[in-house]
Amino acid sequence: MPDEAQEARPPADLRASLLPDPRVVWMVFRRNIWIFLAVFAAVVGTAAAWTLTQTPIYSASASLLIEPAGSDVINVKAVTPDLAAKSDIIDTQVRLISSPEITRRAADAYARLRPSDPRSAAAARHELAATMAGIVSVHRSGLTLVIDIQAESPEPQFAADTANLFASEYIAAQRDAKVGANQHASAWLTTRTEDLRAASSQADAALQQYKIRNGLLSANGATNAEQEVSTLNTQIAAAKAELAEKSGRLNAARAQLRAGGQGADVGAALGSGTIGTLRQSEANASAEVAQLEARYGPLHPDLVKAKSQLAELRIQIQKEIDRILSNLEADVQVASSRLGSLQSSQVRANGELAGNNSAAVGLMELQRRADAAKAIYETFLNRLRETSAQQGLQQADARIAAAAEVPSSPDFPNHKLAAAAGVGGGIMLGLIAIALAEYLKGGVRTKSDVERRLRVRYAGAVPTLQSTLGRMRATEPPEDYIVSHPLSAFAESFRAIQAFLMLGGGRTPGARVVAIASALPQEGKTTTSACLARTAALGGARTVLVDCDLRRRGSSELLIKGQHAGLYEYMRGEVSLEEALVLDEPSGAWVLGTAFPQQDARDPLTPNNMMRLLGELRSRFDVVILDTAPVLGVADARAVSASADRVLVISRWAKTSVSAVEAAIDVLLDAGAKISGLALTQVDITRYASTGQTDAYGYQKKFRGYYTN
Fold first, then answer.
1. 76, 79, 617, 665: least buried by Cβ within 10 Å?
2. Could you check whether the bond before residue 586 is cis, i.e. omega within 30 degrees of 0?
3. 140 pairs with which residues across the strands?
4. C-alpha pair distances (Å), 329 with each of 94, 265, 337, 373
5. Which 8-state DSSP code applies to residue 588?
6. Helix (H) or strand (E) holding 20
7. Separation between Cα atoms, residue 656 and residue 630, nearest integer Å
8. CA distance 240 to 252
9. For residue range 342-356, what is the model confidence (pLDDT) as tens digits?
């Protein structure tokens, strides 16, 4: 492949940076501003229309505070326990608030609150409940003990009433449930307590009857048998002591008498005062006798009398001693008899006590039964008293923390949110539309596309005539306009391309044969060729335009009036070059056209024919422009392009796909064509940065004073 052909495509490193340039982004946005505005207006208008056509929905919210530990008016255990502060318990209450029972109660309460409302009729009560259930949502506020009840309705008063009624009826239902449970418990406890009282009485009666039947009656904690045995033991001990005492006194007196003791010793042993007195009298009588014996003789009457008195005293003392001994013996006998009697009673009482101990086993069983029946009865009786004391004191485990107020403005549609969503959605969808438009267009649009994606030099852009005129209307075709308006912006675009081709488009300045090629038809190739030829001719260069598109004859139809022998006849040798050339009088350029479309399969544009033709044209003209057929559709274009000094590829702006242009460039390079660059045609320069900010048309507004239309 020729060196110049390889240099026609810049290195691939020009495509290395794919990061979006902010200027490029702004350029793309400005270029598609009308698409953006249309989508933005459509989205905002749709949002506004939707907002205005929606039925306003008002939202009212009431808050319940769950109180796990309620205040106790009396310190008794409640029948229904307080709610525990657990997450699952709170979540359960959330479900209960929206239950059918609470909904039904709320509907009934609304009918009482708003009797004039048609929905309050008994026939519509079910529908009212369904409506209220449909507009209420209940949720827990985070992990707190607060439950929010929210109602949404087109009627603000109905929304507030619904939220408040759900809250109040939930509390009332909870209180009613506790009252009902308390009443049910009281009724059951009353019945059960009566049964237990009767059972306790029966147990006590059976116990008492058993005691009576078995002699187990007791006093002061002991049975009669136990008390009798205890008394007998005490009496026997006293009787034994008494017998021992009396037996001792009797034995002592007898011992004194057996020992020959005198009456004094015996009296002292017996402890008798009478004997002591008699002993004193005996002592006095003995003293008197002794005195009388000393004074008188034995027969003295006083002595005999005194001795008689002394003997009488001693007889009395002996009688007293005998009487006392007899009494002592009698006392000992009585004490012994009493002890024997007590011991006999003890034996009998011990027998009875043994019998009582055998019966005590049954007594203890009956006592346990009676105690158990009494304990259960007392427990139920106390619980009945506590339950009865709670009547009317039940409190709900929740209270209304905040009542719902009648909303003054609707929550839906939220005009601010809708406006923000419309604007935000419009911007987002507008940008998406721009991106989609850019993606779907897929054509070559900017200088950057040419240099980075196609890797060829950018030769310039040819605007549409109308886009250069602004609000003025185009009254003549482009090829005539450049003649009548040589200082216009439209004519300047061709001079720029001419300068590129003649000055900066390759290594061989002054090369004169330029082929104009395109990938597809309808890309403006013929118009570009004709305008470029006229521009060069108007600039004073001897110029010839060769119509090499033998099938479509585009250039011939534009610049040649009538039928005239041309290229086809020249190649066949039927006419000379002078005879085939036609002068374009408005510009002074010459045209080598085609009289008729190609009718046979013979190809006159062979390399030899082209070398002969171009050799002759080079000798006569300064600039030779070859208007070729579409490269991808007609093979002739490859040979024609390969024979030219330079090839200018053109692409219709924003229409021809990159893949088509790239395929055409590859075909031309494979054929050995020397591609100088690529020019964009039919560019709408009224659109911002239509060919990119780095192109001259990115600044075309700054040069308005330089052109005359």
1. 76
2. no
3. 147
4. 105, 19, 12, 63
5. T
6. none
7. 12
8. 18
9. 778 777 777 666 666
